[in-house]
Design brief:
rod-shaped, mainly alpha
Amino acid sequence: MVFNFPHTRSQLAATLALFTTGAALFSYGAHLSFVNIEPQQNRVKARSDFVKDYLRRKYGSYDR
């Protein structure tokens, strides 16, 4: 997009403030995602183990 007039100081300040806010929110979201990886992996493993155990009890073991 081409602007006919240069930005004013207040427009540049608002742009910088919005960019900084967006970058801060993005980095906070990345931090929360990184912190919550281990509990999520533990829940997935527990569910997988539960399903495997249920199928072993229902259909028997395949270790023939």
